[in-house]
Write a structure and sequence with these properties.
With about 200 residues, this protein is an alpha+beta fold. The chain has helices at about 20-30, 80-95, 110-115, 115-130, 160-170, 170-180, 195-204, and strands spanning about 15-20, 55-60, 65, 65-70, 70-75, 100-105, 130, 150-155. It has a 4-stranded mixed sheet. A two-stranded antiparallel ribbon has the order 3-4. A two-stranded antiparallel sheet has the order 7-8. A hairpin with a 2-residue loop joins strand 3 and strand 4 (about 65-70). The longest helix has 15 residues, at about 80-95.
Length: about 200
Amino acid sequence: MTKRPMPPAYPIAGDFAAAPEVFEWMQSTLFDKDHTLYNPDHEHLHHLDMPRLSFLWADVEASQKQRQILGTCEKVAFRAGGWQKLRQESQMNDWFGEVPEYLITLDAEHCRACSDADFCALIEHEIYHIAQAKDIFGLPKFSRMTGEPSLMIAAHDVEEFVGVVRRYGASESVQRMVDAANNGPTLSRANIAHACGTCMLRLA
């Protein structure tokens, strides 16, 4: 396995630091067809370069609903005007050189201590949130201007209550998850109980 990137030594000055090394690691592993970690599920992201898709280390703890957040994925948008918007854009420019389209923020302390499998699972969880949009016929959607895949922030494949499955059985999406679990991991087992801030925001 290609050696995974590590956050800067604690503490990070200002609590946050750009993480271009994570993008480079992702490209050389998850996006590389010759690498054992290659995942074809992410092919719709191959056209994104830095800083359109950027990573950020966070050395300050975040929590929501009494759970620690270990990663978030967001489509960058500023819900403010005037100086607030200019200040936020300036911060992004300081970190990345320009404002990204998508930003993934990672808990630096967790990434320093977790296993390689847990790190891979966290990165893949967050980039799975950047999905290719579909048209009204359910087919992959592309930009008419550029021909690139049209992207969107997506929820989980499976969102259901255990009690519903117990009483009424697995829906098609739940059954796909069950089948994937029964077939075992294709790489290595990871503790994927990490808290995703993106998911928590969607459930709020």
